[in-house]
Amino acid sequence: MKNKELVVVGINDSHNASACVFVGGTLIAAAAEERFQRIKSMGGFPKNAIEECMKIAGVTKRNVDYVAVGSIGVSADNMHNIVPTLGIRDLYRLEKEYWQPVIYEKKNKRLRDIFPHYKPKGVLHYPLKSVPFAFNRELSPATVERIAEMRKKFAARYFGLPEDSVHFVDHHTAHAYYAYWTDPLREKKRNVLVLTADAGGDGVYESVNVFSDGAFKCIYRGHTCLVAPIYSYMTLLLGMKPNEHEYKVMGLAPYAKEYEKKGPRGVFEDALAVHGLKFRRSPEVKDLFKYFQEKLLRYRFDGIAGGLQDFAEDIIRTWVLNTIKATGIGDLALSGGLFLNIKINKVLSELQSVRSLYVPPGIGDESLAIGACYRLFEDLGKDMFKVTPLWHAYLGSVATKKDVEKLLRHPLIKRHYSIKRKATPDDVARVLARGEICAIFQGAMEFGPRALGHRSIIADPSKPESVKKINDAIKMRDFWMPFTPSILSERMNDYIVTRNGISDSYMTVSFDTTKLGRSHLAAAIHPYDKTARPQRVRKSVAPEYYSIIKAFEKRTGIGAVLNTSLNIHGKPIVRRPIEIARELIANADVRLDNIYIEGILLSRKRRT
């Protein structure tokens, strides 16, 4: 740093652990711990992410002035990293052997009795002997305070700061500040309605907030919106992993026929309704898992998925309309895990009373680290208008030449790929145009769960066979799941039915497609309802990625590419080049045609 500027490190130490660094009011770096430890949704103290973010920002621990931590309370199960690492079978055991006796028989169960040999995955850093090994949805105040004290002391010691320099920010407040202060257009909106909703944090499921000329006011917060918890439990009951595979249920929903989803939809509607800003659950619902397991036994899986999605869209639509009526504000920003549901966001974007809708990248708990910092700036009395918004999601590390050469020297790369140095975007366009797929590794890693052309796998979006090829050769994902398009900014209106003021840069909102879009993007839209969750690619934001798509347009007339994340199913997006070899190429079931890494094109050798 040239001159001493305020340095703030943000931390989320729950599941989806993450870190960020602000220097002088500007967000310099942000990353999730899962990318470093290679464990999806990794929780706990994000030591690796912190160190990487400080490295990117050019600061050390000695430069850090304050630490902002998202969430006042973090449950013991997150401290032990239980949530991300239990498989579906063990999650069923947890419900049957732990929660059912606790809820219905009032028994005092211990998690160690059910999983006596459980060992946390990854390196957790916190002194876990001081944290009770118990899975609790509702922790006692004393336990919350003990865990919070341990977190504060640990962070203070780690950074060499006094404890009063470590600030905790309420979970949903951090969500709200992230949604508002990252918006590049916030200064043009005098009043913004910020809604948060998720499966719970600091005793809250939902909040309604207003930012008026930057001044924050929470007008409602509650523990009544069960939509996100219901969606997670239904994900498990449909045989998929909660807190990770909800998007699969959403992708399955459009296939359900009306007669199949009518019954399940009624079950959900009977369980939860909205009244004003609050939600009201049926008194019959004691435990979500058991209630829906019994009520939905006779319904088909696709009908359940479709009924669930219809219910979620309808009840959140009503809630949002109620919040707009109560506040008179039509400029919306959203945050929290529930709004990872892009179909809900689509419904909201189409409401006449919604003038604008902003949904930033990474609105799950990984963004709590950033939101906590924004709130801390305000608490410190800093001029918030000097704090910059989020202009792009490329906030992670950049590969060094040494990193790239390490990949090129890997035996599997040398055996299977020819290497063309000084390759051009047109070289990538050429292989795409002939129907091949290409992994892209360039520039700074994206923040959030979506690959945005820097850690992506891309293909010709007009060829339906691209879907099968990627699924069979690399992703091994469920056949019904759609891919997504990255579209040149100037071609968005050719392909997507949208309007001004609606987020379309981060794949956080779904849209209908035009007739041309359904042709040019046939492989990159939902095959049944023909919707897309696009990424608008601007030359000023992602020049390298823009150049590749532009070169592809010159060859084919198509101003977009099919885009999916550079990883194999069940693993985080790759962070280092070498992980392409270790996790993808080393997998016998994976076959990548091409890899474009920092201007070098690797093409798979043809068998003779």
Structure summarized in a few sentences:
The protein has 23 helices and 23 strands.
Describe this structure in words.
The chain is α/β, with parallel strands linked by helices. The chain has three domains: 7-173 and 370-386, ATPase, nucleotide binding domain (Nucleotidyltransferase, domain 5); 186-359, ATPase, nucleotide binding domain (Nucleotidyltransferase, domain 5, 2-Layer Sandwich), CATH 3.30.420; 401-604, DHBP synthase (Alpha-Beta Complex), CATH 3.90.870. It is 37% helix and 19% strand. It has 23 helices and 23 strands. It has an eight-stranded mixed β-sheet with strand order 13-23-22-14-15-21-16-20. The chain has a five-stranded mixed β-sheet with strand order 3-2-1-4-5. α11 crosses α13 (301-327). The longest helix has 27 residues, at 301-327. It is globular. The mean pLDDT is 93.
What would you say the CATH architecture of the largest domain is? Alpha-Beta Complex
Q: Roughly how many Å is the radius of gyration?
A: 24 Å
The biggest beta sheet is recorded as: 8 strands, mixed
Give the overall form.
Answer: globular
- Helicity, as a percent range: 25-40%
Keywords:
Nucleotidyltransferase, domain 5, single chain, five-stranded mixed β-sheet, DHBP synthase, alpha/beta
